[in-house]
Design brief:
The chain is mainly α. 74% of the residues lie in helices and 0% in strands. Helix 4 crosses helix 5 (140-151), helix 4 packs across helix 6 (162-186) and helix 6 packs antiparallel against helix 7.
């Protein structure tokens, strides 16, 4: 039990550092995902334009809008991700721990993680979509209270976009853990500490890249559902797959996601 608590604490600290470093990019990503298109005069023309506009209009703290929900949720979420993966892996090890079992453990950890983090994601996205200066926007707690008072705790309120979040985290963890651990075991360890670090880093980078590409459609759908609707008073984005169908190029996005999953699964089955 004590070792599990130490493990949970280590993952918590890793998550905190990651959030502080990556949150500005998360704000920029959300702004691109929820903008209404080139016809919108407030839309960003490029990545550089987005960074410059946020900095000019909202200040340096504009890049840290909505950071409190991630600190409250994303940091322990990292601990939940790895902790539950280990638990699901132990359960599945009662049978043969095949490549498919590792992916199944990853899927289970992703679904668990999504249920925990989704309410915080709703608050985070709504704060990131706010283009007022950092000092003028409501606090995370005030925003959460506002959402609960207007829409409640259900799928139209604090748990809006749950299906998309389940898809995003489930797909990511399924591919990430399945690919990383199987490839890591297949490539021999290097006795040199530096080369061994580079080996693990390269495998992790490749795994994270493939997983991120595969879960993009769910991530975009989540931001559209949880963010402000294009027309006030009218709900355009309602469900995960309905939102995907309304987004530009839904067929290529869906094709990429399924092709990545299928070919990675086939490759793992052939080699392990």
């Amino acid at each position: 039990m004590i070792s599990q608590l130490h493990q949970f604490s280590d993952f918590w600290q890793i998550g905190l550092v990651e959030i502080c470093l990556m949150h500005p990019l998360d704000v920029v990503k959300t702004r691109f995902q929820i903008q209404r298109g080139s016809s919108d005069p407030t839309s960003y023309k490029s990545l550089r334009d987005c960074f410059r506009t946020i900095f000019r209009r909202e200040g340096i703290f504009g890049f840290y809008k909505g950071i409190l929900p991630p600190i409250l949720a994303e940091t322990p979420k990292r601990a939940v991700k790895f902790f539950t993966f280990e638990q699901y892996k132990k359960v599945l090890s009662l049978t043969s721990l095949s490549p498919g079992a590792l992916s199944a453990a990853g899927l289970g950890s992703g679904l668990t993680e999504a249920v925990i983090v989704n309410p915080f994601e709703v608050v985070k996205v709504s704060l990131q979509a706010n283009r007022d200066s950092f000092t003028e926007q409501p606090s995370a707690f005030a925003q959460a209270r506002r959402i609960i008072e207007s829409d409640g705790y259900g799928l139209r309120g604090l748990n809006k976009g749950l299906t998309s979040t389940l898809g995003r985290h489930g797909v990511f963890n399924m591919i990430y853990f399945g690919f990383y651990f199987n490839v890591k075991d297949a490539i021999p360890a290097n006795p040199d500490p530096t080369l061994e670090f580079l080996r693990k880093f390269a495998i992790g980078l490749t795994s994270g890249t493939i997983s991120s590409i595969a879960n993009i459609p769910f991530d975009v759908a989540k931001s559209r559902i949880q963010g402000p609707q294009p027309e006030p008073g009218a709900i355009k984005y309602r469900t995960c797959f309905q939102t995907m169908s309304l987004c530009s190029s839904p067929v290529p996005c869906g094709g990429v996601m399924l092709l990545v999953y299928e070919y990675v699964s086939i490759w793992l089955q052939k080699n392990w």
